[in-house]
Specification:
three-stranded antiparallel sheet, alpha+beta
């Protein structure tokens, strides 16, 4: 006999949710829940309730101050409603967002040098022997062929391109196995890990296994990345810090607004937990 489960709405507080006397009904919260994925139904319900409380408070304040704004359209073509545009304009106007100083930008750069380093560049060639893990015979043969090629190249490195043209299953065989210049993230993790252990002029001592099969790798040249100077990234750092400060300032403004409003039936969390967009 089959059974089915019915997901019921989480229990909500008996007290009505009100913002300056305006009631937010259970029906409104039920519709809003779908916009707030959460680990549990109760958490989703609370997030939806808080979002509606914030929206109501912002809407009331925008109307009180007579704030008007043209609806914006996002990158995906979604257009704001008139009410959303007014609330956005209100927060942008009322939240004080100081510009980061040059000293703050320099301090961030000094503490996060790894984020401002150009990637290493590898000039690499390879020979691929295709193999599928579910084909035991073909898998073993591919590995054996890769080991044989490594032995041949170790004896005579000048034969790498010729062997690539003859044996590689990768389209790069037409270029003697050359992949040109690659940077981190452009190859598989296993391939990249092998590259990092190699020096210029070396061929992988063992076949490198990836989801495509077994690779014989030859590293021709390695160009180490360098830390970008502050002057080259100052604008990027300032934009990042401004955005971070803006989010905090907007959340703090909403908390102040809710603190001045008469909110009933829900506890207002700290600014970090608020999403004002």
């Amino acid at each position: 006999m089959s059974t089915c489960s019915i997901q019921t709405l989480p229990s909500a507080p008996k007290a009505l949710i009100r913002v300056n006397g305006v009631t937010i009904s259970r029906a409104m919260i039920s519709r809003e829940v779908q916009n707030h994925p959460a680990p549990t139904p109760v958490a989703a319900w609370k997030a939806a309730t808080l979002a509606l409380v914030v929206r109501e408070a912002l809407g009331q304040e925008a109307r009180r101050l007579g704030v008007r704004a043209e609806p914006a359209v996002d990158a995906e073509g979604r257009r704001e409603t008139d009410e959303e545009a007014c609330m956005r304009a209100l927060v942008e106007r009322e939240a004080v967002v100081p510009e980061p100083t040059d000293e703050e930008c320099r301090r961030y750069h000094a503490r996060n040098l790894a984020r401002f380093r150009s990637p290493d560049i590898f000039e690499v060639s390879h020979i691929l022997f295709s193999a599928r893990a579910d084909d035991a015979t073909g898998y073993a043969l591919a590995r054996l062929n890769a080991e044989m090629v490594i032995a041949m190249v170790t004896t005579d490195p000048d034969t790498f391109a010729e062997l690539a043209r003859a044996h590689s299953a990768c389209p790069s065989r037409e270029l003697g196995g050359s992949l040109g210049q690659v940077t981190p993230g452009q190859t598989t993790p296993e391939f990249e890990a092998a590259l990092r252990l190699m020096g210029p002029g070396q061929v992988s001592a063992e076949p490198v296994e990836t989801r495509y099969g077994f690779h014989v790798i030859s590293l021709s040249r390695r160009i180490e990345g360098r830390t970008l100077p502050f002057e080259a990234v100052r604008t990027r750092i300032a934009a990042y810090l401004s955005e971070a400060v803006r989010h905090r300032a907007e959340a703090q403004y909403v908390v102040r607004l809710l603190g001045q409003a008469r909110v009933e039936g829900i506890e207002i969390p700290a600014p970090a937990a608020l999403n004002v967009h």
